[in-house]
Amino acid sequence: MELEIYTAFTKAGIPDEAARAAVDSIRKEIDNRYALHSAQLATRGDVEAVRKEVGELRGEMKAEIAKMQTEIAKSQAEIIKWCMGSIFAAVGLFLALSKMLH
To answer: Which of 41, 50, 88, 99 has its CA 20 to 30 A from that of 73?
Structure first.
């Protein structure tokens, strides 16, 4: 591409030194533009690395959710146990008090 641009400049009557400088400037600008884009674009390797990381995070989250569900089930069983015990204790206390009052 650089040769075509150089040839076009020289055929248009631009001096050799100026044509070379212009072609060099164009090449540098193109290189800068590619550098900017390459810094912003993801490669397949980048995408695969992110997919792998997301997969690992999903696995960790599923494990944590399962652990939390187990903890919740244990807490519910504990609450039910104490509620039932409190109910039976209250009924027993009520029966004892009502027997004492009669």
So the answer is: 88
